[in-house]
Design brief:
With about 240 residues, the chain is of the alpha/beta class. Helix content is about 30%, strand content about 25%. The chain is built from 5 helices and 9 strands, in the order βαββββαβαβααββ. Helix 2 crosses helix 3 and helix 4 runs antiparallel to helix 5.
């Protein structure tokens, strides 16, 4: 068993709702469109820093929103780029008058959607600059990617640029720092097994819990295991 999921269609939204409940003093979650933002955003006079990408790589990027790191993060669906409207809304939400830096991973969808969002924001008078992170040396000449992917160095860039923005770096200086971090970062990712992607399907077993309410009714909490291939659990 890898995880408990109520419904694959709701997994991102429910995860974000849990994140908001766990850290109400640090961040807020907007659900239409979806983005995670610092609780005190926008910070007047501070350069904003945002990033984003497909869900399924947590804590990237929503787990890195807060003081000294990202001002906002845009989570797409599982392994899917965030949309331009998410990125635009997040950028506007953190604009404190000093511009916003987009930290973008080198995937075709991410680059295209961040570029579209930047154009929309600039049309509204918000200065936006973007740095593409491309540190994965394993796929530099791959036929199946747009060059080196943005992976591990993204976290370092988010941390260093977030801290620098908190210390007062302007947008041009922050962009230069991010490019320097990317130029000096290299990583290689590998896995021992394939990932488990949430997908619709009939669960083999249900885990049912319920509790009484004060008015005498009952709340039923239902979660299900991913398909189980072993012997039935005790008592089933």
């Amino acid at each position: 068993m890898k995880k408990l999921i109520n419904d694959p269609q709701d997994v991102v939204r429910e995860s974000l709702a849990g994140l908001a409940l766990a850290h109400p003093d640090i961040l807020k979650v907007n659900f239409d469109p979806v983005y995670v933002v610092r609780a005190d955003a926008p910070v007047r006079g501070k350069t904003g820093v945002i990033s984003g990408g497909g869900s399924g790589h947590e804590p990237m990027h929503g787990g890195y929103v807060g003081r000294g790191m990202l001002d906002a993060a845009c989570p797409g669906q599982v392994f899917t780029s965030p949309t331009p409207d998410q990125i635009e809304a997040a950028t506007l939400a953190v604009d404190g008058g000093a511009g916003v830096l987009h930290i973008v991973k080198n995937y075709t969808g991410d680059i295209m959607n961040f570029e579209m969002a930047a154009e929309l924001c600039q049309a509204r008078g918000v200065e936006v600059r973007a740095v593409v992170i491309d540190d994965d040396v394993a796929v530099e000449n791959s036929l199946y990617t747009a060059g080196r992917r943005g992976v591990g160095t993204t976290v370092i860039a988010e941390k260093l640029c977030g801290a620098a923005a908190g210390r007062g770096y302007d947008l041009a200086r922050l962009e230069a720092l991010c490019r320097r971090v990317n130029a000096n970062g290299r990583s290689m990712g590998m896995a021992l097994t394939s990932c488990t992607v949430p997908a619709a399907g009939k669960p083999t077993y249900d885990l049912i819990n319920s509790r009484s309410t004060k008015n005498g009714g009952r709340i039923v909490l239902r979660s299900h295991f991913v398909p189980y291939r072993g012997a039935p659990p005790p008592g089933r």
